Amino acid sequence: MTTPTLLILPGDGIGPEVMAEVRKIIAWFGDKRGMAFDVSEDLVGGAAYDAHGVPLTDATMEKAQEADAVLLGAVGGPKYDVLDFSVKPERGLLRLRKEMDLFANLRPAQCFDALADFSSLKRDIVAGLDIMIVRELTSGSYFGEPRGIFEEGNERVGINTQRYTESEIDRVARAAFELARRRGNKVCSMEKANVMESGILWREVVTQVHQADYADVELSHMYADNGAMQLVRAPKQFDVILTDNLFGDILSDCAAMLTGSLGMLPSASLGAPMENGRPKALYEPVHGSAPDIAGEGKANPCACILSFAMALRYSFDQGGEATRLEQAVESVLAAGVRTGDLMQSGDGNPASTTEMGDAVIEALNASL
Ligand code: IPM
Ligand code: MG
Question: So what's the pLDDT on residue 347?
Answer without folding.
Answer: 77
